[in-house]
Amino acid sequence: MHSVLMISWQRKKIMIDCGADWSGKQHKIRPDAILLTHAHMDHAGGLKSGAACPVYATVETWDRIRVGPVPERVIVHEQSPFKLFGVEFEAFPVEHSIRAPAIGYRFTAAGKSVFYAPDLVRILDETNALKKIGLYVGDGAAITRPVLRNRDGVFIGHASIRTQLEWCAKQSVPRAIFSHCGKEIVAGDHRAAVEKVRGIGEQVGVKAAIACDGLQILVN
Predict the structure, then answer these.
(1) CB within 8 A of 52, min separation 6: which ones?
(2) Which of 34, 47, 167, 192 has its CA 20 to 30 A from that of 207?
(3) What is the pLDDT of residues 21-73, one digit of tens each?
(4) Residue spans per domain, the chain
(5) How does pLDDT run across 76-107, given as a tens digit for each residue?
(6) Superfamily assignment of 5-210 in CATH?
(7) In this structure, are residues 201 and 167 in contact, taking their beta carbons and an 8 Å threshold?
(8) How far apart are CA 130 and CA 115, in angstroms?
């Protein structure tokens, strides 16, 4: 199914993104809130039939999606922290698409911080987004060669895992997980891909891995 990150904290569930595969299926995991990174169907299409909880998104994303009934539509402002069930969130703009401007979320609870950006070419404020985080969860579209297109002088698409690990090394991020994987990982030799990502991480001093369905991570 389309990529979803679920944050569990103090008996609450916060779901980041709700792709088209999740349409009408949110009841299976019953999130208490849903946050969106951008308007592409594999991240927001699951809300076409609505949701039973509040939904958070930037103005740009709200303007570009069709959403069924929801209890509350909340606007997220970039780099303006807000709290949700005891978790602090901050949205950082990232380059990914011109038609569907995207953000990544830095979230913090009990002094532990994670940055999540499933689709991106680069983080516009990399230093503050990745400062003192314990885990980076990033874009798994490609391992060593980025997937880029030039639109009117702006690069859109996906940074490579290698590039993202270099960001992490530069900001002293100790650990990285890559989700929302592309064909190189999904359709190729999975074991070889896992070893390749782990090896690149070792080269730059970051513990790196590829996510799998149902993966649970305790951040401590």
Answers:
(1) 26, 27, 30, 70, 71
(2) 34
(3) 888 777 788 999 999 999 999 999 999 989 999 999 999 999 999 999 999 99
(4) 5-210
(5) 999 999 999 999 999 999 999 999 999 999 99
(6) Ribonuclease Z/Hydroxyacylglutathione hydrolase-like (3.60.15.10)
(7) no
(8) 7
Q: Measuring CA to CA, which residue among 71, 98, 94, 83 is closest to residue 7?
A: 83
- Classify the C-alpha dihedral 88-131-136-66 as positive or negative: positive
Coil vs helix vs strand at 184: helix
Residue ranges of E strands in the chain:
5-9, 12-16, 33-35, 55-57, 73-75, 82-84, 87-95, 102-109, 112-116, 122-123, 135-139, 147-151, 154-158, 175-179, 207-210
On whether the CB atoms of residues 90 and 106 are closer than 8 A, the answer is yes
Indicate the DSSP class of residue 103: E
Share of the chain above pLDDT 70, in %: 100
**What ranges in 106-150 are assigned the alpha helix state H?**
126-130
Q: How many CB atoms lie within 10 A of CB 74?
A: 15
Q: What is the pTM of this model?
A: 0.96
Nearest by Cα to 2 from 42, 29, 48: 42
Asked if residues 204 and 216 have their Cβ atoms less than 8 Å apart, the reply is no
> Which pLDDT score is estimated for 69?
94
User: Is residue 141 classed as helix, strand or coil in its secondary structure?
Assistant: coil
